[in-house]
Amino acid sequence: MPLPEWVPIREDLRGYEPYGAPQLPDLISLNVNENPYAPSEAVADDIAAAVRAAALGLNRYPDREATELRERLAQYLGHDLTGDHVWAANGSNEVMLQILQAFGGPGRTAVSFAPTYSMYPEYARDTHTRWVAGRRADDFTVDPQAAVELIKAEQPDVVLLTSPNNPTGTALPLATVEAVLDVAPGVVVVDEAYAEFRRAGTPTALELLDTHPRLLVTRTMSKAFALAGGRVGYVAADPAVIDALRIVRLPYHLSAVTQAAATAALAHADELLAQVDALREARDELAAWLAGRGYDVAESDANFVLFGRFADRHAVWQGLVDRGVLIRETGPEGWLRVSVGTPEEMDAFYTALMEVDPR
Ligand code: PMP
Q: In which pathway does it act (predicted)?
């Protein structure tokens, strides 16, 4: 619904809809790349106990610096990182907005490579940052030479690289990240929301942090960690870059409840991440099954697969919805994205797709 004329919203925001995938809780949800395995009763008990302890202090503001949580996140990341190298916020969405607030802004430019995460242009819009989208190659990789040329031409203050990329699943070789770092005049952000799902041999940009002070690597507890509802994302970077983000954050942005829940969850990292191997296997099976049925399938290092191509992808998406399976109509025209679910959920998807699109 468009806003009524009398609402005095910023002119450049007029006509936009709030972003978000449909939320249809009765359907099998393979549309927002969540971990289908909920935390166990034991983990839930520990989270509840930590939240209860925090509740007894809720008359006070939380630790503005989220000190303990940041230290735990640094320990989880390894690579000799400390709490000073890490910043946390309400999902990596908020982290990314803070990055654009601190390093983008009026008169500044952000560059990314499409197709990619559809929220980036919105962070740019909301922070009045000029948005420039380069193109990925037909196989959804980023051509380092083309990236370098675009960055030399645009001189962006922020480069957003996504690895593995959403919605294509494509991971970037470190050589591409390094080529970008060599020419980018501003910060380079590698969004690694799906890093834990990457295939053996696919590197993480965390390896480049100690030699590249303008590199930021963002992560989230929403995906592999099975904590999407907890809303915790984070970034690793040079402590001076983290200090820049602290300038734009709202005071007390991360509630005591969130900090307690996330810290308790991190103590169970091994258990929460235990299903990641199974999900990676299921992802490879899913890709092979789709390819076996003759679809084009994008190579994926994430917990979802982009496949196509359909003359009328909306009809296929709707046909699946009608059969109780919700996937995502996103990415380039003709393609659809499906997240990896439990074996039962995958069976339901396979059955429904064979009905909707018998080949
Ligand atoms: N980055 C990418 C590439 C994503 O796909 C998502 C979630 N869909 C996010 C960031 C944001 O996730 P969250 O805010 O839950 O951490």
A: Amino-acid biosynthesis; L-histidine biosynthesis; L-histidine from 5-phospho-alpha-D-ribose 1-diphosphate: step 7/9
Question: For position 35, which CATH number holds?
Answer: 3.90.1150.10
Q: Is the CB of 91 under 6 A from ligand 1?
A: yes
CB of residue 112 inside a 6 A radius of ligand 1 = no
For atom 12 of ligand 1, the residue with the nearest CA is: 92
Q: Which of 240, 269, 298 is the last residue of a domain?
A: 269
| Residue 314 is assigned to a structural domain of this protein | yes
d(CA 225, CA 220): 8
Q: What is the pLDDT of residues 37-81, one digit of tens each?
A: 999 999 999 999 999 999 999 999 999 999 999 999 999 999 999
Helix, strand, coil % (nearest 5) of the chain? 40, 15, 45
Q: Is 282 within 8 Å of 350 (Cβ atoms)?
A: no
Burial 217-249 (b: 16+ CB within 10 A, else e): bbbbbbbbbbbbebbbbbbbbbeebbebbeebb
For residue 161, the enclosing domain spans 43-269
Please write the tens of the pLDDT for every residue from 90-135. Answer: 999 999 999 999 999 999 999 999 999 999 999 999 999 999 999 9
Spatial CA neighbour of 257 closest among 73, 54, 91, 46: 54
The residues, any chain, with a CB within 8 Å of residue 333's CB and separated by 6 or more, are: 313
